Amino acid sequence: xxxxxxxxxHDEARQGEAFSPHWQQQAAGKKLxxxxxxxxxxxxxxxxxxxxxxQNEGYAATTLPxxxxxxxxxxxxxREKAEQTVRKRLTEFRSIKKSRPGLMVGVLGCxxxxxxxxxxxxxxxxxxxxxxxxxxxxxxxxxEAEGGQKAxxxxxxxxxxxxxxxxxxxxxxxxxxxxxxxxxCNNMCSFCVVPFTRGRExxxxxxxxxxxxxxxxxxxYREVTLLGQNVDSYHWVDESSDxxxxxxxxxxxxxxxxxxLRVRFSTSHPKDITDEVLLTMAAYENIxxxxxxxxxxxxxxMLQMMNRTYSREWYIAKVNRIREIIPGxxxxxxxxxxFCTETEEDHQQSLSLMEYCQYDLAxxxxxxxxxxxxxxxxxADDVPLETKKRxxxxxxxxxxxxxxxxxxxxxxxxxxxxxxxxxxxxxxxLHGRTDHNKVVVFPKKHFKKGDYVMxxxxxxxxxTLLGEAI
Length: 470
Ligand code: SAM
Ligand code: SF4
Ligand code: F3S
Fold this sequence. Notes:
- The chain has about 475 residues and is of the alpha/beta class.
- Helices cover about 35% and strands about 25% of the residues.
- Strands 1, 2, 3, 4, 5, 6 and 7 form a seven-stranded mixed sheet that branches.
- The longest helix has 25 residues, at about 385-410.
- It is globular.
- The site of FE3-S4 cluster has 15 residues, from helix 1 and helix 6.
C-alpha cells in the first residue's frame, strides 16, 4: 500500500470528500446535485466553481448521493491508485443508478480529461464527461444527457481561468479558503500527467483574485491559500496600465487587504521561487512563513531524468537562501521513491537531502507510471515494486524523526494561532494553525473560530502541538 506519512490533509492525499451538511440548500422544487472531489486543492477549488455554475442553473446541493438527480465525481489521475479509487466509487454509484434510472452521473476533472470519451465506453453508467477547462458547458451537457445522448466536453483552453465565477464554498470552516490564481502547467516533469490533464499554464487577472480575497475577508474568512501548480510563474499584464503583476507583487496586493488576513500559497517550483518573493514574505507579517518546495529526489541524475531543471546542489542553495532571508521558515516537500533506473546510491542521496533539509512536512510516494508522460515514453519503469515500497518506507521513517524533532522544538514557545474550529476530539478545545502551518490544540475558554490567539505550547504529539492561551 502506498504510504503517506503526513498527519495533515494534503492535496492528492485527500480522499473523496463531499461537502458538509451546513451547505445544504433550501431544495424545495429544485433538482439536486451531489459532488464528491478527489486529488489536489485545485480540484477541490474547481468543485466550488462547478457548484456555482449549477446553482445559477437552479440546482441545489445535497450531501446524500441517494437523493441526487445528478451525481458528479471530480477525479484525479496523478497516480494509478488515485484512478482506482475513483473506479471503485463509480461501482458504488452503479447500484444507486440501477434503482433510479433517471439519475445522471458525471465525471469531471483530470481523469475525465485523460480518458475522454473512452470513459463512457468503459464505465457504462457514466452519462457526462467534462474536462477541467469545460465546466461552463456543464448545463448544456446535462441537457444533452437528459435527451438521451452521452455528453462529452474535454477541450482544453489557453484562456479559461473562471475568473468571473464566484466559487460557492463547499465543506468550508468559514475561516480558511482556497483561491485559484492560475491553471495548467508548462513544466514537463517527465513523471507527471498534469500538463496533459490541465493544459497550458495561464494566470488569472490580478484584480479578480484580489476581489475574491477581499470578499472572503468581508465574509469573515481570515486565511487564503493562493493556488497554482507553479505559483512563482504567475504573470499578469494589466492592459490599461501596462503594469506586470508578478507573484511577489500579487502576494503584496493580497497581503495589504488587511493585516488580519493570513496569506499562504502552494505550490512553489524550486527553479522559479525568487528572492523578490522571499523578501515580500519577510516584509509582511501576515504572509505565512511556510513554503512547500517539492524536490522529488536528492539525486542530480534522477532530477535530470525527471526534467526538474535543477540539481541537488542548486536546490540546497535555494533552501539556504530561504533560511537566510526568512529564518525559521517552515519547509515541506514532495518525494518520489523508485523513479526509473533509480539505484541504491540515488536513493541514499534522497535520504541525505532529507537529512540536510529537515523538512517539517513531507509527502512521499512511490513512482507510478502514467500513460503518455515523457517518462512512460522514454524510460523503463524498472525498479521492482518491492524495492520502491522499501525505499518509500525508509524515507517515511526518516521523515517521521525529522517531523517529531520539529514539533518538539516548538515546546515551550508561544505562537500566534488562527482558530479554525473545535478540536475533533473534545469540543471544549479549539484547533488552529501557527504561521508555520502546525496544528495547535488548546482549551477553548472564551475564544472562537476566526480569532487570533497567543498560545504557549506545553507538549506535542507527532502531528499536533498542545498548549494554552496566554
Ligand atoms: N506542481 C507541483 C510540483 O511541481 O511539485 C505538484 C504536482 S503533483 C500534483 C504533486 C506531487 O505528486 C508531485 O510533487 C510528485 O511528488 C507526485 N507525483 C506526480 N506524479 C507522480 C507519479 N507519476 N508517481 C508518483 N508520484 C507522483
Ligand atoms: Fe507536474 Fe512538474 Fe507541473 Fe508540478 S511542475 S504539475 S510536477 S509537471
Ligand atoms: Fe490530481 Fe489533477 Fe490535481 S491529476 S493532483 S487532480 S491537477
